[in-house]
Design goal:
heterodimer; A: about 325 residues; D-Maltodextrin-Binding Protein, domain 2; ten-stranded mixed sheet; 10 strands; globular; B: mainly alpha; 21 helices
């Protein structure tokens, strides 16, 4: 039995080590909120999970929030958590739900009946631009090359991505092709069930180009695996200035895959203001900078009404495109 | 290369890093035993700890230890209580659990530990020598080949299609394939066959279904039949009659381990395949090339049938580091999480890793070898204690199995509906078992179905039709191989029977 007690001690040590990371630092006078409960509409280890836990870590370590707790509630592509937040609104004053661009897409396609309008909009906090990339040995170097190849033989220029047809990666590719004057429905989009598999598809030559997140693309471009031929940012991005924008190549496309936080409908204005205050202050803390840099996130802060205007604009743009593509 | 190897050796063999491996293996093994917590979630839990360490080599060594520990822990629950918590250990339960039922739990765990160790170690050596070369081989596989590979994997169901069972096994496979189509497919934006139930949007959960098909019916059987907790020869299940592997058994499994280390590793190298496919393929190949009398033992407690998937899934896990380290492509959910950890530690995997950070590259590879060795040393002495779980009286054992089964289904998703699905399918599975329908083909069909469909649809789209079936030689050869694996044993059996009849006639 001796062996067992040793292992238990190791496990406890490991557990203690884990806990100490989430432990609140002593509030040094600027604490905004006592506690925040993060509702994560997907399982552990996903993008939503990382965003909520990273934000909670920065908020507590910086002393802006006393303590943070987390709850994973997957199901219905995020719809289950949204329904839960609305149905139990009265008792969920201290709850923040994380979400991202798919809430717009999935409410358009009717995966769930609710939309962002049914929730209290707290703030968009981070984002990632989208990128079109090609393999390092590809003859394609610019968007013009890609378009030329496509015009010469549309059937042989497949664009891949890690989301379903009608999902984000497909919409970004279609947005770019449409802005370049092509028929977005004619583009052959090949869907993979994960970004890594899509990247393998690109490197094996199965697809000609890949639509993916910019931060993922940066890592592979730095490793010399791919060439980034266009990103959906308004201007070149500081962290990787070698990547040309779509705009500078004459393709008028902008797209941000945002992530942000929502609260239950009808919670008090004071509470909403406190959430927004804590998040706004978070950006200037070294604790946030550490989490942000570790995850390669881009700060895109859109509090309250700005968030609403942003979401409405995105909904219109994506909705129009999805109608053209026949998904609505 | 030698210089890098030496730097790696000195990094990996520091006291603190050896402690990392030991700690990682222990944590991984114990948490991994709980169904529902697979390598992916355990690594996700451990990432903040690893990042807190700061030193990328040490962090990776810790995570590699956790990874191997978790895979080994997963096979323990498959063998002891028929509850495979990870898809890659489903094939382990096919023969591991029957062995445990025969009172050979200790032996089964030993075979599993030795096979895992050998698969992982041979895999690590192959990785050491061939990693840079294999990176390009991994990219030869297109969707068409992955589709064909899944078809080869499906041939594993032949093991459950005994005499008079062929129709039932096929029926269950088709049912499994159908269940894989529920939910949002990767290729269609619409949810299919969900019946309007929001929780089915992303399909049935693997763990829920595995628990419903294997662990829950077993627990119900134990309740219904008090004699079942006793062995066929009357001794209690918990009694560990045989721990050691006999000389004949060792002779039987050595060639299996040799073949499956290489085969499993190569399948693991492919970014779209991974440990689950490797374990099914390993099981299918070993069963179908085994002599007739041994073949009939498969599914009833064959040590070969246990050694094959256990070797293959560990070798494949090692193989999956090839695309991760040399190309920066994660081939599985687990390696995707590891990639995230690497990036967080400011290490960019890819062809430049070996040049820019040789210490990290080699330290990881050496830590794999070390991880496997530590795992074996730690686990062999523990096996008698672990196997004692089965000696617990059934009044306590049954609630224990039920608790872990229900918790396993709930813990990953925190979704109570999973429990209703689990119980519902658990009851159906129990009825099917009473009617003597094999449940393993259903689960194989379910696991492979989604990948089969995705790759088939992608290939159809890329080739504007089924042209890939004959235009790509590798696809065609894999499909021919699948046919051979399915029909060769039947043909051999028929010929043997004809010959026996011929002899009888001559008399």
């Amino acid at each position: 039995m001796n062996t067992f007690s040793v292992t238990r001690r190791v496990m406890l040590a490991a557990a203690a080590a884990t806990l100490s990371f989430g432990a609140p630092a002593f509030a040094d006078g600027h604490q905004v909120l006592d506690d925040v409960h993060f509702l994560i509409p997907g399982g552990a280890g996903g993008g939503w999970d990382g965003t909520a836990r990273g934000t909670g870590e920065a908020l507590t370590n910086a002393g802006l929030v006393g303590s943070a707790t987390y709850e994973n509630m997957s199901g219905g592509g995020g719809g289950k958590a949204i329904a839960y937040l609305i149905e139990n609104a009265e008792s969920l004053e201290n709850t923040l739900m994380v979400n991202s661009t798919p809430i717009v897409i999935r409410s358009l396609t009717g995966v769930f009946p609710q939309s962002f309008r049914d929730l209290t909009l707290v703030a968009g906090t981070i984002g990632d631009y989208a990128a079109l990339v090609v393999g390092k040995d590809s003859e394609i170097n610019t968007m013009d090359d890609l378009l030329a190849a496509y015009r010469a033989d549309p059937a042989n220029v497949a664009v891949g991505g890690g989301s379903v047809p009608g999902g984000m990666d497909h919409l970004v590719a279609a947005l770019a092709m449409e802005a370049a004057g092509e028929d977005p429905t004619a583009v052959k989009y090949v869907a993979y069930d994960a970004g890594g598999k899509a990247m393998a598809g690109l490197l094996s030559g199965e697809i000609a180009a890949l639509s993916t997140g910019f931060s993922e693309a940066i890592e592979l471009a730095k490793a010399g695996e791919v060439k980034i031929i266009g990103i959906t940012a308004p201007e070149r991005v500081e962290s990787f200035p070698d990547a040309p924008t779509m705009k500078e190549q004459g393709i008028d496309t902008e797209f941000v895959n945002w992530r942000g936080f929502f609260a239950a409908p009808g919670i008090s204005e004071d509470r909403v203001a406190a959430y927004q205050d804590a998040i706004a202050k978070m950006y200037d803390t070294p604790e946030w900078e550490e989490v942000r840099a570790r995850n390669g996130w881009v700060n895109i802060h859109n509090p309250g009404d700005d968030f609403r205007a942003f979401l409405e604009a995105q909904e219109t743009a994506l909705g129009d495109l999805m109608k053209k593509l026949g998904f609505l | 290369m030698l210089e890098g190897l030496l730097v790696g050796l000195s990094t990996a063999f520091s006291i603190s890093n050896i402690l990392m491996v030991v700690g990682g293996c222990l944590i991984g093994t114990f948490i991994g035993m709980l169904p529902g917590l697979g390598p992916m979630s355990i690594i996700a839990i451990m990432i903040p700890v690893a990042i807190g360490i700061g030193d990328p080599s040490a962090a990776l060594i810790l995570l590699a230890g956790v990874y191997y520990g978790a895979i080994f822990g997963g096979s323990t629950s498959s063998i002891l209580i028929n509850a495979p918590g990870v898809a890659s250990t489903v094939a382990t339960s096919f023969d591991g659990y029957p062995l445990a039922r025969q009172g050979k739990a200790g032996k089964a765990l030993t075979v599993a530990a030795v096979s895992s160790f050998s698969g992982g170690t041979i895999g690590a050596i192959l990785l050491l020598i061939f990693a840079p070369m294999l990176a390009s081989v991994a990219l030869l596989f297109h969707s068409a080949e992955y589709f064909a590979l899944m078809v080869v994997g499906l041939s594993a169901i032949a093991a459950f299609a005994g005499s008079g069972q062929v129709f039932k096994a096929l029926l269950m496979t088709i049912l499994g394939l159908m269940m894989a189509t529920v939910g949002e497919g990767a290729l269609f934006p619409m949810a299919r066959f969900t019946g309007g139930i929001m929780d089915l949007q992303s399909g049935f959960g693997f763990i829920t279904l595995a628990m419903a098909m294997f662990a829950l019916p077993e627990a119900i059987y134990l309740v219904l039949d008090p004699k079942r907790s006793q062995q066929e020869d009357g001794s209690s299940t918990g009694e560990i009659k045989e721990l050691r592997i006999t000389r004949e058994e060792a002779r039987a499994i050595i060639p299996v381990i040799g073949r499956q280390s290489v085969q499993g590793f190569l399948i693991g190298v492919l970014p779209g395949a991974g440990a689950t496919i490797a374990s099914f393929l390993g099981y299918a190949v070993e069963r179908n090339i085994a002599p007739k009398e041994e073949q009939e033992q498969f599914g009833k407690g064959s040590v070969k049938g246990l050694a094959a998937p256990e070797t293959a899934n560990n070798a494949a896990c090692t193989g999956s580091f090839v695309p991760l380290l040399t190309l920066g492509i994660p081939g599985s959910g687990t390696t995707a999480i590891l990639l995230g950890a690497l990036i967080a530690l400011n290490v960019s995997p890819g062809p430049r890793l070996m040049i820019d950070n040789p210490d990290i590259f080699w330290a990881v590879i050496i830590s794999m070898y070390l991880g496997n060795l530590v795992l074996l040393i730690l686990n062999l002495p523990l096996i008698p204690y672990i196997a004692k779980i089965l000696a617990v009286p059934r009044n306590y054992l049954i609630p224990f199995i039920l608790f872990f089964t229900l918790m396993g289904a709930y813990i990953g998703q925190n979704n109570a509906t999973e429990l209703l699905i689990l119980v519902g399918f658990g009851v159906i599975a129990t009825i099917l078992r009473f009617a003597d329908y094999p449940l393993a083909p259903l689960l194989i069909g379910f696991i492979l179905g989604r990948m089969l469909e995705d790759n088939f649809a992608r290939a159809m789209q890329l080739y504007d039709g089924p042209g890939f079936l004959w235009e790509r030689p590798m696809t065609a050869s894999l499909l021919v191989l699948a046919c051979l694996l399915i029909f060769l044993p039947a043909y051999r059996a028929r010929r043997a029977r004809l010959r026996a009849e011929g002899v009888a006639d001559a008399d």
